[in-house]
Amino acid sequence: MTVLLFKLLFTYAKMGLFTFGGGYAMIPLMEKELIQVHKWLSMQEFMDIIAIAEVTPGPVAVNCATYVGYKMAGVWGAAFATIGVVLPSFVIVISIASLFLKYKDTPSVKAVSKGLRAAVTAMIASAALSMARASVVDVRGIVIVGLVVLGIFKMKIHPIICIFLAAILGIVLWGGAMSVPGL
Q1: What whole-number distance in Å separates Cα of residue 124 and Cα of residue 69?
Q2: How far is CA 157 from CA 151, 153, 154, in A?
Q3: Maximum distance among all alpha carbons in the chain?
Q4: In the chain, where the domains are located
C-alpha cells in the first residue's frame, strides 16, 4: 500500500512538474501515465473522469488526481495524488513569481513566454483531438459537438450552460435513465 501511495505521489508530481498551462494541457500526459504506463484506468474511465472533473468545482487536474488516488488507494491515495499534482506548481510559483515580475519585460522572458504559450496551445489541441476520437463515435456525438461549438462561439452561450444542455441531450439522444448506481 505504501508503495502505491508513493507511486501516486510521484506520478502526479511528475505531471504537475512538467505540464505548463493548467489541467487541460496536462490531459495528454495524464492519458499516457494513467492509461498506458500504469494501466490504472481504461480510456472510457479516463473520459468519464475528465467530464466529471470539468463540471465539478476546482481545477481539472486536482479533481482528476483526487478521483484516481481515491480509486487506487482510498482517502490516503486521494491525498497523496492531490499533493503530488499541486506541490510542484506551488513550489515553482513561489520560487519564480518575484523573478518574473522583476524581469517580465526582458526579451528572453518574453520569448520563453511566447514559446510556452504555443506549446500549451498544441497540448490542449492534442487533448481535444484525443478526447474527440474516444467520445464522438456516432452521429449523435457529432450533433452534440456541433451544437456546443455553435452555442459557445456563435450564440455566445456560457460554457456551463452548454455543459448542462449537452448532458440533457445525452439523456435524450441515448435514452439514459436518470438513476445513480448505489442510491
Answers
A1: 23
A2: 5, 8, 8
A3: 58
A4: 2-133, 136-183
